[in-house]
Design brief:
DUF2066, 18 strands, globular, five-stranded mixed sheet, alpha+beta
Length: about 350
């Protein structure tokens, strides 16, 4: 296992991990509504809104859910509810132009119901093992550039964290202590200097790291993002936002869409791929069991079976959604398996996936 410093907003603690972050509560949502609604109105509105929120979290595709799913598509949402509760709330919400008291409705849906809805509409299902992302967040307000982190919080960073939780994104912020200050400068971050940013990000041991810079210009916000993947690939994202209140939401939606497209797959009865995976370093039953448990944890893997076992080398046949690249990207997020390319002269050179077991 590896240790890493996890900074989820303003909490600093150590946690051992062997996989990408596991997101809890994917199929659960909390909705705040005016308390003067009847119970029927309250639950009817809560179930539809909660279903939409959960569909966004499970798919990682707010762009598709918000643009293609209408209220009428969610008329069956009450039948998807596994359990719900109505709780008191101390928040005030707007209703008919007035601020009124509210109630909180907590809704948990059946996993199969949500998944089948997404499958029917050919929208990806993203599992609960998701890549952790370290975010270096900078703002330029015309008078200077500010870097946000644990020791230097900002309203935008807080909003990014809130929306990240809504989208099921494990977003972390740097401490911004003396180590960070000596490792990378604000100008290097603003300029997306890869070597300096990568070196400063190493101490946090997240799966990915990203630089987000926001320029407040006149009546709009210009946002430029770089996302750095384990393979060395760097993906740029750039957009302008007219409404200042939507900056954090759009940042999270863009990141969520990018990562879902990379690590999630659309499921369908006739759209799975059959792949061969060769593993070396499997010399005990315990190691083989760990590998099989790991395969079960990958959302893209529908099923697998053991094809052969000889002299510490195992071959599995894997039924997977999304093809070779998506499966390779998912495996690259942890240290259980390390790619072990085959020589062109190897009799097994036609096997598309070849790895060495590195788990403990």
């Amino acid at each position: 296992m590896k240790n890493r410093i996890l900074i989820l907003m303003f909490c600093v603690f150590w946690m051992p991990i062997s996989f990408a972050d596991t997101i809890t509560g994917l199929y659960r949502a909390e909705i705040i509504l005016p308390s003067n609604l009847t119970e029927g109105q309250l639950l009817g509105a809560a179930f539809k809104q909660a279903a939409k929120n959960v569909l966004i979290k499970v798919s990682g595709r707010p762009d598709l859910i918000n643009t293609t799913i209408k209220d009428n598509d969610l008329k069956s949402a009450p039948a998807w509810v596994a359990q719900h509760s109505i709780l008191s709330s101390d928040q005030l919400v707007q209703f008919n132009g007035e601020m009124v008291s509210s109630k909180k409705v907590v809704v948990t849906f059946y996993e199969q119901s949500i998944n089948l809805f997404l499958i029917d509409r050919k929208i990806a299902i993203w599992g609960n093992n998701r890549p952790s992302v370290l975010v270096w967040l900078l703002e330029d307000n015309g008078r200077g550039r500010n870097l946000s982190g644990v020791n230097s919080p900002s309203a935008l960073l807080s909003a990014v964290a809130t929306h990240a939780a809504d989208n099921g994104l494990p977003i972390y912020a740097p401490i911004l202590d003396e180590v960070d200050v000596n490792a990378v400068s604000i100008s290097a971050l603003w300029g997306f200097f890869e070597e300096e940013v990568a070196q400063a990000s190493k101490r946090y041991q997240t799966d990915l790291f990203s630089v987000v810079r926001v320029s407040h210009v006149s009546n709009k916000q210009s946002v430029d993002i770089r996302v750095y993947f384990p393979s060395g690939e760097i993906i740029p994202l750039s957009f302008d936002i007219a409404n200042n209140a939507n900056v954090a939401l759009v940042i999270n939606n863009e990141l969520s869409q990018l990562l879902s497209e990379r690590y999630a797959a659309v499921r369908g009865a006739d759209e799975e791929f059959s792949l061969k995976m060769r593993l070396v370093g499997i010399d005990t039953y315990d190691k083989m069991q760990k590998v099989q448990n790991y395969l079960d944890s990958i959302t893209l893997v529908r099923k697998w079976h053991l094809a052969s076992l000889k002299d510490g080398e195992v071959v599995y046949i894997i039924q997977s959604d999304g093809g070779v690249k998506k499966l390779k990207d998912s495996i690259a997020l942890n240290t259980v398996l390390t790619e072990n390319p085959l020589s062109a002269l190897d009799p097994n050179a036609n096997i598309s996936l070849s790895y060495e077991f590195k788990g403990k």
